[in-house]
Design goal:
Number of strands: 13
Low-confidence stretches: none
Shape: globular
Helix content: 10-25%
Structural class: alpha/beta
Bound molecules: zinc ion
Order of helices and strands: EHEEHEHEHEEEEHEHHEHEE
Radius of gyration: 18 Å
Length: 308
Amino acid sequence: MLRVVVLGAAAGGGAPQWNCGCPVCLEARSDPGLRSTQASIAISADGDHWFLINASPDLRQQLIATPQLQPAAGKLRHSPISGVILTNGEVDAVAGLLSMREGSPFTIYAHAKVLSILKANSIFDVLNEKNVRRQAIELDQAFEPALPDGAPPGIEILPFAVAGKSAWYLEGKVHPGGDDGAGDTLGLRIRDKATGKHFYFIAACADVTDDLRSRLAGAPLIFFDGTVWRDDELILAGLGNKTGQGMGHISMSGDTGAIKTLAGLDIGRKVFLHINNSNPALLPASPERKIAERAGWQIPADGTEITL
Ligand SMILES: [Zn+2]
């Protein structure tokens, strides 16, 4: 049985974001039930050993809220977290690694382009490579991450390229991993080897291509990029000058948005993830939330657990 815990559902900054007074952030400040930490999930096939998909800056808070990820009873130093799989190099996907620096062994799995970013930023050297291995993963090559003793966890992960951008802070700069080729934005197919059940994790996606549609058709569960409701919502709200596309994210709504382009694909359960605090679908009473839910999409609360 594959267990998945949504540690956080929000995009960079979370909801509320520290410097934001938009309608969603205002409501989230006054109603704790609307708060959401930055996007990450935890997965396990045996309930004892867990892997994180991305390590958000809110990781410490997420671990406090998630008993499954806390040290086992009676152990002085221990963590059930065996590894972290990174799907991109954005701050909201990698900064949580810095909270995992106290000497416990685990492995970081990421594409060479994302590993090059960690290598180029010496602050990540707090993760001593004696304890924390860094393993490159390849596009379209399934791998099985390892438990700290080297045993297989029963989970197979297939990384694949999705349309996206390099991390925002690299815009206009030389990428430490080179500017050629894919690898900055990954989707993952995660499969329980014992049952064959699988799901998809795609927290950033700039374009739903025909290839992606056929890949996702019939999937029992997908987590998908829900950053913005509409492409220009940050500009319309006066929050900034970035469009969703400019940040490498499609919208929930519209002709090229996730709701429309992923309709009719016989997907069992559709869950939005990486939802920006500007996105009105975060508010349960909003018309946008109702449209998303009527189309079969879920906006998960932090801590939601799903089993496959
Ligand atoms: Zn806001």
